[in-house]
């Protein structure tokens, strides 16, 4: 039987990550999650159509604009936005989504699971698992 830790380990085994909802605001979780990937020497792309960069890294407006295909994404957005982002993830071949606490909704989770995407939700935050440092 597969455990949550199995799904987390598979998610973290990706070559690169996209952080949907990445922010320039150092107090927001979108900033902290992106910074956490960087702190842990993970290749990560900030995705936010409203900012040019996050921590000096070019921010991309959507998954289609990324310089490479990314299979694992973290989502840190309000649930209605998460639901639309899941549709985009399905179109772009994402295989694993980690919906950070507060981003998930039953509809977003169901859409992703129905599309065969591995979903982590309702549990630990990537900040805890990877060990975020201020």
Q: How would you explain this protein's 3D organization?
A:
This protein has five helices and seven strands. It is of the alpha/beta class. It has a domain at 1-50 and 73-99 and 119-134: Rossmann fold, CATH 3.40.50. The model has no long low-confidence stretch (mean pLDDT 95).
CATH topology group of the domain at 1-50 and 73-99 and 119-134? Rossmann fold
Structural class: alpha/beta
Strand content of the residues, in percent?
A: 15-25%
- Poorly predicted parts: none
List keywords for this structure.
single chain, 134 residues, alpha/beta, Rossmann fold, 5-stranded parallel β-sheet, two-stranded antiparallel sheet, 5 helices, 7 strands, globular
Précis, in short:
With 134 residues, the protein is of the alpha/beta class. The protein has helices at 4-12, 29-39, 79-91, 106-114, 126-130; strands spanning 16-20, 43-47, 53-54, 57-58, 72-75, 96-99, 118-120.
Outline the fold blueprint.
Blueprint: H1 4-12, E1 16-20, H2 29-39, E2 43-47, E3 53-54, E4 57-58, E5 72-75, H3 79-91, E6 96-99, H4 106-114, E7 118-120, H5 126-130
Parallel strand pairs: 1-2, 1-5, 5-6, 6-7
Antiparallel strand pairs: 3-4
Helix pairs in contact: 3-4
């Amino acid at each position: 039987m597969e455990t949550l830790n199995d799904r987390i380990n598979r998610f973290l085994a990706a070559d690169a990550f996209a952080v949907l909802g990445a922010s320039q605001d150092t107090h927001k979780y979108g900033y902290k999650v992106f910074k956490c990937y960087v702190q842990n020497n993970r290749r990560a792309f900030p995705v936010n159509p409203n900012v040019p960069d996050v921590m000096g890294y070019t921010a991309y407006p959507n998954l289609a604009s990324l310089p490479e295909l990314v299979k694992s994404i973290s989502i840190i957005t309000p649930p209605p936005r998460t639901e639309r982002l899941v549709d985009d993830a399905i179109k772009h071949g994402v295989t694993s989504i980690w919906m950070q606490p507060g981003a998930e909704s039953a509809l977003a989770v169901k859409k992703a699971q129905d599309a065969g995407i591995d979903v982590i939700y309702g549990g630990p935050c990537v900040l805890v698992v990877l060990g975020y440092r201020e």
